[in-house]
Give the backbone structure.
Amino acid sequence: MQLVRFVVGATVVAGLGVGAFVTRDRWMGLISSHSETTQAADTSPPEPIQEAKVLKLSPQARKNLDLVAKPVKPQTYWRTIQVPGSIVDRPGHSDRGVTAPAVGAITDIHAFPGDTVKPGDRLFTLRLFSEYLQNTQSELFKATSEVQLVQEQKTRIEASVKAGAIPEARLIELDNQLKRQKAAIQAHRQDLLTRGLQPKQIDSISEGKFISTIDVVAPQPVAAAKNEPVIEQAEPQPTGNWQEGVAYELQELKVDLGQQVQAGQLLSVLSNHHSLYIEGHAFKQEAPFLERAAQGGWPIEVEFAEDDRDGWPQLDQVFRVRHLANSIDTATRTFDFFVPLTNQSRSYEKDGHTFVVWRFRPGQRVRLHVPVEELKGVLVVPSGAVVRDGPEAYVFRQNGDLFNRIAVQVLYEDRLNTVLANDGSVTPGLYLAQNGAASLNRVLKAQAASGVRADVHVHADGTVHAAH
């Protein structure tokens, strides 16, 4: 009986195998279709996740980034162009040459580079070799003596003229002669004054005491031109310890002791850097902007390189373009424009000498921000408050520990500030991070990549809501 059951079971299994082999084209197609459907369902892309726009920072993280948040409000901003420049001497004001009044030899030098001098201080002693100067002294003495002789002769004959013994024409002749000699005396005295002689020395020459040496002294300071524009200041500008009456600093000696010099030869260069120019170097295509700034009297912002503000008074001067150069430098292909600068100084005493230190020096580099366009009703933030991500630009609004990223339109940006359009993307009065925007954007991307989103929170009932 068991044998019969075994035989029947084997027969059934064999029959099923043969049937499965014969109908394999039907059932294998069904299995392959089901497998592909299952695999397609497994590899389908996940639902898109909304981009995170809010990040959360701890108080310690905000301190590490040194974040500062301030409210923004619409304002007026001047779009500017940056132009390089430098500080230069002001021709006719800063430097002044001292020349030899006559032919002679340098017998003494009384001031040296770095020394400060007042008007009338001795600079050089010159031994005269000038034949012309010696003749002028002789002519002055002769004319003075002749005046005395004519005056005495006139006094003697006045009584005779009144008595009629001598014709009155003789008295008239003496008067004319006296006038001619006085005119000659005046001319000789003026000539000697222009040669650098003092009135007391000229009086000595009139008495026959001729001068063989002459002192070359510091001149009077240059008076400001009447047509010079007034330099505006918020308040009277202090000048440190600059001594009253000091006119110049001896900048350079051009002669040596014992050297023979000719009349008009340069002996030294005196400087006074109180009044300088800021010389800007612009390209020709920038000329229309500078012309409008000069005509409109628009104030220019100046950045002074290598300027140590410690110990100096606040610089409250308003800078404006005075004039534009009408020639182009052939080497740099730029043209210059000039802005007046009032310098600051202080002095110190050492070994009985006074020395001066100026805040701004010729050759010092500057950067000029020239206004070219007025933007009204815009939002202005520091450049560090905006981050670029491809064509997009973002700022971050602070709300407690949360920072919300907001897309904005940039109208203009420079090295310091960025101007945003007041198009409603940022409501005036919101607190925006003033710095660290690039760092905040990196943190936001890192939080989004980690799957920990700061812009959602879970309620007690288990529902998930956006941050509010």
Summary: The domain at 54-76+375-466 is CATH 2.40.420.20 (conserved putative lor/sdh protein from methanococcus maripaludis s2 fold). Confidence is low (pLDDT under 50) at residues 224-243, 456-465. Helices lie at 2-22, 24-43, 59-65, 131-163, 168-194, 199-206, 287-296, 437-450. DSSP finds eight helices and 26 strands in the chain.
